[in-house]
Amino acid sequence: xxxxxxGRRSMLAAGGAMMATVFMRPRxxxxxxxxxxLLTNWYAQxxxxxxxxxxxxxxxxxxxxxVSIRMGGPQVNNMQLLLGxxxxxxxxxxxxxxxxxxxxxxxxxxGTSFQxxxxxxxxxxxxxxxxxxxxHPILINTEGRSTFWPWLRARFGFSDAQAGVYTYNIxxxxxxxxxxxxxxVTSEPFAATQxxxxxxxxxxxxxxxxxxxxxxxxxxxxxxxxxxxxTRFLRASAAGWNTYLYGDPxxxxxxxxxxxPSMSAAQLAYSRDALRRINALGEKGSVIGxxxxxxxxxxxxxxxxxxQFPDTPAWRRAxxxxxxxxxxxxxx
Length: 332
Known about the structure:
Blueprint: E1 36-39, H1 49-56, H2 59-63, E2 67-70, H3 78-83, E3 89-92, H4 94-103, E4 107-114, E5 119-123, E6 138-140, H5 142-146, H6 148-156, E7 163-165, H7 171-175, E8 180-184, H8 188-194, E9 200-203, E10 213-219, H9 220-246, H10 250-259, H11 265-277, H12 293-305
Parallel strand pairs: 1-2, 1-3, 6-7, 6-8
Antiparallel strand pairs: 3-10, 4-10, 5-8, 5-9
Helix pairs in contact: 1-9, 1-10
């Protein structure tokens, strides 16, 4: 899902549902009001477009909450920065939020970017379903081994002998007609398309591994001190996402390229098309950025059934739906 195909950074999260009072009236941001600091999970790209769009179009300013955006990257330990108070909100994942809940880390999932993960397997044209990959070599990254791989293994009878290390290079896929590689629907398929390499793409969420994508995590301290700002941030971000994918994305793209000059217009356009195609924000009319108890419970059941995570009541502290209950922007 990331520029040049690099996978998301492994991020842990846990938490509770401590809330500050939420005020919904518009307000001007005070001159000395500290910015709410968003830490992304990779270099700036279309998968962060809604946040850049909201900032560029002045939506955060209109909401009365200044927002700064800091890029993640291969040398950035997001969770360390979040826990150390160097960021207020970071982009993470459901699976690691559940894992960290058992570790009692003071972090809570407060909302999400996407209603589904954009992770899947890029396969050759003769493969049309995941079950056909039994016995085939499959390259996956470190995070994938501890999240969706145990599910694939249990669901389709795959063996650990099939799993190799994905180094974010599609050349092994090109050279081996039996190989599948873990990719993001917005990234490696673009590279393959540019090089006229034929492929099929199998999104994991279409086969039953349902997770939210690019989940937003905050510490309990930030929630307690700045709950009002968190709500305003989520509402403005939802509006930014709606405009970025279904309106004019020019402002967001401009700011993305300022942060990440190597990001091409062609890659941005391809990624937006892919996010629209899979309905990443949800089906038409659905609320952008929302989460619900049923989805969290379903993933908890999935990852504990195959032994990925310990089955303890602590998992319920990994998230709160209190903030998303104030969201109202729907998919255009």
